[in-house]
Amino acid sequence: MEQAGLPLEGKVALVTGGSRGLGREMVLAFAGAGADVVIASRKAAGCEELAEEVRRTTGRRALPYAVHVGDWDGLTAMVDAVEEEFGRLDVLVNNAGIAPTYPSLEEVSEALFDKVVEVNLKGPFRLTALVGSRMARAGGGSIINVSSVASVRPTPGDLPYAAAKAGLNTLTAGFAGAFGPSVRVNTIMAGPFFTDISRGWDMETFQEMADRMPLGRGGEPHEVVGAALYFAGPASSFTTGAVLNVDGGQAVIR
Question: Which of 19, 39, 97, 155 has its CA 20 to 30 A from that of 69?
Fold first, then answer.
């Protein structure tokens, strides 16, 4: 029985790209809501550091796991390791993503294009297929994709990334149908958040755009938490195949 105020008590949540940025905030929020957590990212040190913080501040179990989300076989090994450690997986967040810059569309290399698709689309497809199938057999779960407003407002400077994230929106609808009724699949369509990626922004250009947004600013990483907890927990029990904008209104700029 869930304890009051702990909607994820007894659950296990895996977050890719979980050691920093939006992923870090979701890991801490899930642990604070009662879940044991798996922190997956390419660099083991960052995962281990956050896992220790989770254990110290929340008392929850935390498994750090170094993996590249584009590694097809590596994802299978990770899911097996999670089941061996916890015996279950209730929440998956496909948060890992990359958006490398390039000088022009003509100069986008095949290697860059493939890398962007690999991390933002191929990896989430494989991980959702693996985890969703196991969740369905086990009786249910929640899968959360982290997309981008670029998927509906692409620009010349982010076209491969935007296309991959648009594909992720499509996967959300497809997997919701494939794994229902017991597994819910939804998407957080994120706008501009002040994470590590924002360090490379031209802030003057960004602020010109932000001034036209209804909320007039970028988001702080912790502001993704409400949507993540909603999709992960029982409050969204009648919600699947949904794409929720968490973007300060960027998608409605005209």
Answer: 155
The yes-or-no verdict on residue 214 having pLDDT over 70 is yes
Residue 218: which of 206, 229, 228, 230 has the closest Cα?
A: 206
Give the global pTM. 0.95
In a domain, 46, yes or no: yes
Q: What is the tens place of the pLDDT at every residue in 7-62?
A: 999 999 999 999 999 999 999 999 999 999 999 999 999 999 999 999 999 999 99
Task: Answer yes or no: are the C-beta atoms of 41 and 17 closer than 8 Å.
Answer: yes
Which residues are bridge partners to 245 per DSSP? 189
Q: Which domain holds residue 101?
A: 12-192+220-247
Is 80 exceeded by the pLDDT of residue 198? no
Peptide bond into 156 cis (omega under 30): no
CATH number, domain containing residue 45? 3.40.50.720
55 occurs within a structural domain: yes
Q: What is the pLDDT of residues 57-113, one digit of tens each?
A: 999 999 999 999 999 999 999 999 999 999 999 999 999 999 999 999 999 999 999
190 vs 150: CA distance, rounded Å: 9
In terms of Cα–Cα distance, which of 40, 58, 162, 41 is closest to 100? 162
Q: What is the 3-state secondary structure (H, E, C) of 187-215?
A: EEEECCECCHHHHHCCHHHHHHHHCCCCC
Report the distance separating Cα 226 and Cα 248, nearest Å.
Answer: 14
Inside any domain, residue 166: yes
- Please give the Cα distance from 212 to 79 (Å, whole number): 43
Give the number of domains in the chain.
Answer: 1
Q: 202: closest CA among 155, 163, 161?
A: 155
**Residue 209 within any structural domain of the chain:** no
